[in-house]
Amino acid sequence: MHKQVLLSALATALVIAGSSPAARAQTPGSWGSWLIGTVLLPSTAERKWGGYAEVQARNNGVARQYFYNELKAGLSYDLDKNFTLMLAGGRYATSDYRDLRAGPLSVEKRVWLQMVLSQYMSRLKVEHRYRVEQRWFAYRADSSETRNRLRYRLNAFLPLNKQTITDNTVFLSVYDEIFINPKGPVLERNRVYAGVGYQFSRRLTVQAGWLHQANYSPAALTKGQLVPQRTAAKNNVVLAVVFRLPNRTGTPASEHLPSQQD
Length: 262
Hints:
It is a single chain. This protein has helices at about 1-20, 20-25, and strands at about 30-40, 50-60, 65-80, 85-95, 105-120, 125-140, 145-160, 170-180, 185-200, 205-215, 220, 225, 230-245. It is mainly beta. It has one domain (about 1-245): Beta Barrel (Porin), CATH 2.40.160. The strands form 2 sheets. The protein has an 11-stranded mixed β-barrel with strand order 1-2-3-4-5-6-7-8-9-10-13. A two-stranded antiparallel ribbon has the order 11-12. The protein is globular, with a radius of gyration of 19 Å. Pfam families: DUF2490. Keywords: Signal. InterPro entries: DUF2490 (IPR019619).
């Protein structure tokens, strides 16, 4: 019963996201690509601490027109098998792909506190991720600003050839994530992802998928005229590689959910 309810809720979220004005306003050929490399220090049953480091590159087109990168790292603590806290930070740089030598147009530094709740059912695995972010921006024109943001992601995993996601497992991953700006617009961004992955071993997992990202700009009053909310949407091809460092101390966890840290 719980599985049917969760699957129905997730399917509904994807249908709503896919039928939204942002999705319908998508212009043909507007595809980008993301490449994500992550190194994890996994926790164990005895040692609750873990961590990760990640580098990410994004292109305006598919494997061309590089314009953006992320460098991130964090420290996690398992309160129990289903409940993990994390403190992390990162640097995010955006450039003009037509003039990379000029340096970044903007550099963002970010710190966040994250809580992850996991549900392990007979086959379906579900993850709820809650994140609070503090963000500092520096622009090339010597201006700066500070923003806060809230994020929630519902992520479901379904192993295809096994009951659990362990060695030599093919799995599906689907998620929907909303980004909330307390100052408005309330809904700042929405991401929908669907992909397939393969866990070669406890150390190596690879995922490839499609990600639709929609950004929402607030309505504004300009020269006495109301400019309505604007939406910019883009499809992306995502390739993610995760490497888990060997952990010789303690008993390894029986199953790790192959979540993307982004």
